[in-house]
Design goal:
This protein has eight helices and twelve strands. By secondary structure, the protein is of the alpha/beta class. The chain folds into two domains: 122 residues, Rossmann fold (3-Layer(aba) Sandwich); 98 residues, Orthogonal Bundle (Arc Repressor Mutant, subunit A), CATH 1.10.10.10.
């Protein structure tokens, strides 16, 4: 059972989400604007937040930006718009998923389950006994890229690169499976943790963000038309 904060200025949307969440055995609270969402999130106790973009008082982007200053609680962003700019903006703020209205409540519940399973796997993992010993860290180096997979740190030409959590996960998965063709379905299933629904724009958006983070080394991420992507160490 999860405790979910549902934030949307449309009562009809809030009620629909809360209804399906209750059916799945979860508890929910509701907020009608961004300011209220921040105050409720600040009190803590929520496992995941569902936040709409277009709201009065304070929009969803601004609310997420403020929440990320004091909390790393997973966030799913809702929007009636599916523009890539909105998705990139959201993912750069550190949201975990982006769902376009109208959406299937069942799919939303599946996405919540996938995010929470991944979060709990991460929090339940024991710290490595090699932590703090750089000699035993798993290091990958290619051209001007240096990646410490153990510490989750990426350097580009000696400078540290800041990525969103999902960028790190996608990049590290591709590195560990380098020179292998990875289908879109496989990447979404392994990195996002839920079954492939046919909408792979979220993956494409993260690939674009990852390429931007890698700068001149972005060419190592090869697009395989009709298949997916490959991280190529031979380019």
């Amino acid at each position: 059972m999860y405790k979910i904060l549902v934030v949307d200025d449309e009562e009809r949307i809030r009620r629909m989400i809360c209804k399906y969440a209750a059916f799945e055995g979860h508890k929910t609270d509701e907020a009608g604007d961004g300011m209220q969402a921040i105050e409720m999130a600040r009190r803590g106790g929520y496992d995941i937040l569902i936040i709409d973009i277009m709201m009065p008082e304070l929009d969803g982007f601004s609310a997420c930006r403020e929440i990320r200053k004091f909390s790393d609680t997973p966030i799913i962003m809702l929007s009636a718009r599916g523009e890539e700019y909105d998705k990139i903006n959201g993912f750069e703020l550190g949201i975990d998923d982006y769902v376009v209205k109208p959406f299937s409540p069942k799919e939303l519940m599946l996405r919540i389950d996938a995010i929470m399973k991944r979060v709990r796997r991460g929090s339940g993992s024991a710290p490595s006994s090699d932590e703090g010993d750089p000699q035993k860290h798993e290091i990958f180096e290619l051209d001007g890229l240096r990646v410490d997979l153990t510490a989750r740190i990426v350097y580009r030409d000696g400078e540290r690169v800041d990525m969103s959590p999902k960028e790190y996960e996608l990049f590290f998965y591709m590195l560990k499976n380098r020179n292998i063709a990875l289908s879109r379905e496989k990447l979404i299933s392994e990195v996002w943790g839920y079954d492939f629904y046919g909408d792979d724009r979220t993956l494409d958006t993260h690939i674009k963000l990852l390429r931007r983070s890698l700068g001149q080394y972005a060419s190592h991420i090869v697009t395989l038309r009709g298949v997916g992507y490959r991280f190529d160490t031979e380019k």
